Amino acid sequence: MNGTLIWLTIRQVRWIRFAYLVLLFVTGYFEFTNRGSLSVHSEAGMMVWILGAGTIGKDVTNGVLQSIFSRPVKRFEYVLSKWFAVGSMGVLVAWLYLGMGWTILFFQDRPADLTDLLTGLIIAVLASFGTSASLILFSSLVPGFGDIGLMFLIGIVPTVAVQFWHGGSQYWGYIGSEVVQNFLFPAGGWAEDGFDSVSLFAWVSYFFVITLCLTLAVWAMNRKEITYANS
Amino acid sequence: MSGIQVENLVKTYSRGKVRALDGVSLAIPSGGVFGVIGPNGAGKTTLMGCLMGFLNPDSGSIHVDGMDVEDIRVRLFTGFVPERLTFEKWMSGRSFTAYQHALAKLPAPQREQAVAAALTEVGLEETAWDRPIAKYSRGMLQRLALAQAILGSPRYLFLDEPTSGMDPLGVMAVRNLLAKLKKQGCTIILNSHQLEQVDRLCDQVVFVRQGRVEAMETQRAGEEVERSLAVSWRKLEKGLSEAQLKTIIEPSGAQLKDFKEGQAEFLIKDDQGSEKLLACLIQAHIPVIEAHSVEKRLERLFMKENDMEAKS
Question: pLDDT tens digits for A31-77?
């Protein structure tokens, strides 16, 4: 990993994205108030989407890859740095979000268990780095913010399709939908039940998805030809 | 082995339908300025892209100082100025140069000094160093591009149209900088449409057309070479024959290339040759109205290739 590229990726985040995060925090306030429990999995995924959308795609569109790869920077170093930067930002914001939830519950006289809080903190890490890997893969494939569009499309298609299927097809539709969700938001197995009921399969599948996404992203970057941006 | 060796480089686009480079072979010696010229769409930028390892050629090989161009170590001693200056616009000139210094894995303790030295070297005003790049003019961007390229005194400098959009003073400053870098032993590969600049700076010039190297000229940078001078004069009452004109210009060493009443074109060897020719004409009381250089050497290269194309 390259510290300069990690720093660059963090600095690339524009203020407008923080406005979207504020919206997420406002929704979270009501969520914590009503639900009364700490949960962060899907929110961490959303935060990664907001902070990391187009992280590679925008570099391609803006034509800045030339100035990076004219330097002694390996492409896998670039991909891993992007993944780590986006994942880390996701973790930080998700922890802030959890902190807000814990504070709300504390002042409502129903403080969360320390175990719940710790579980939440760990899930935030797993979900952020998992979603970041998936996002980096799509960002390496399509320019601009196409990654978000592509992920949204892939996520929504099976969910919509199962509504029109019946019998056996519907069953396989649900399975397919779950697989897709686990691919887009790895760490799905921990979302509802914490760590007690998580199987070895869930761990293996989590690390498999991350490895697969990053390997494919590096492969896509290695094949990418750096031409001049459309100016 | 020092220098750059390009062997039988082929690069196609659109699944082989467009042949951007068609078996290009070059040997670029180290320590000089190597110019790449050619018409639009000739494949110059594709060649530059392959030399920088940005594009994957279909076949052929490129070696820089004996190392494959894909070898990451090559990037430790090369600098690059792209044609389109697409940098991180939110950064300031200073922070962008510092960022490039860090990416180049140059020593951090000397970063501040090295950045200031590079920005000063290219003549970017100090008041602009902390301004966002988005507010830079084209000329300022060109200077910034050069500043980041010369960080760490690279052994090879790849310049893709480094002075397009620059004011004349900027062009002169860049020319002086490149001459200085050349003296320091830097090998410069220059892709430019500005033939006068290429003519003045380059030791070797390659003419690329339709993805092929059509001609290569070796010269001493800025040396004077044979060219044409067109001269017009007010028609003489008694007239002037071709034979008379040849006798008049004989002492100057110029040769008569084309003759019409009131105008002629001469082949001269250098600037002194033009002076001598004009002196001979004036001494013979020929009322010269105008004299201008018809074409320069590299322009002739273009013209020659175009003529060949027309004939074929």
Answer: 888 777 777 777 888 899 999 988 999 888 888 888 899 999 999 99
A3 to chain B: which residues are within 8 Å by CB?
Answer: 102
Domain assignment of residue A231, yes or no: no
Question: Quick one: average pLDDT of B11-31?
Answer: 86
In a domain, A17, yes or no: yes
Give the pLDDT confidence score for residue A217 in this predicted structure. Answer: 94
B120-137 burial, b if ≥16 CB within 10 A, otherwise e?
A: ebbbbeeebbeeebeebe
Q: Does some domain include residue A167?
A: yes
Q: How many residues does chain B have?
A: 312
Find the mean pLDDT for residues A95-124: 85
Show the beta-strand stretches assigned E in chain B: 4-13, 18-28, 33-37, 59-64, 67-68, 78-81, 156-160, 187-191, 204-209, 212-218, 227-233, 255-260, 263-268, 288-293
Q: Best interface-test mutation with B: which of A61, A67, A73 has the largest number of B CBs within 10 A?
A: A67
pTM: 0.80
A66 contacts B86? CB cut-off 8 A: yes
- Pick from B49, B78, B103: which is nearest to A4 by CB? B103
**How far apart are the C-alpha atoms of B74 and B88, rounded to whole Å?**
24
3-state class (DSSP) for residue B68: strand
Distance to chain A for B219, nearest Cα, Å:
30
Instruction: Supply the range of the domain harboring residue A48.
Output: 3-222
Q: Write down the ipTM of this complex.
A: 0.82
- Nearest residue of B to residue A14 by CA position? B90
CB contact (8 A) between residue A71 and residue B75:
yes
Residue B121 pLDDT greater than 60, yes or no: yes
A161-202 confidence digits (pLDDT tens) = 777 776 667 777 777 777 887 788 887 565 555 556 667 777
Q: Check CB contact under 8 Å for B87 and A68.
A: no
Task: Give CA–CA dist B242/A209, Å, rounded.
Answer: 86
Q: Looking at the partner chain, which of A62, A71, A225 has a beta carbon nearest the beta carbon of B100?
A: A71
Q: Is residue A161 part of a domain?
A: yes
Nearest 5 degrees, angle CA B113-CA B119-CA B123? 140
* Chain B contact present for A219, CB below 8 A: no
Taking only residues 132 to 151 of chain B, the set having a beta carbon closer than 8 angstroms to any beta carbon of chain A reads: 148
Q: How far does the CA of residue B101 sit from the closest CA of chain A (Å)?
A: 9
Number of domains into which chain A is organized = 1
Q: For residues A122-151, give the mean pLDDT.
A: 90
Mutate to test the interface with B, among A4, A61, A64, A71 (most CBs of B within 10 A): A71
pLDDT exceeds 50 at position A231: no
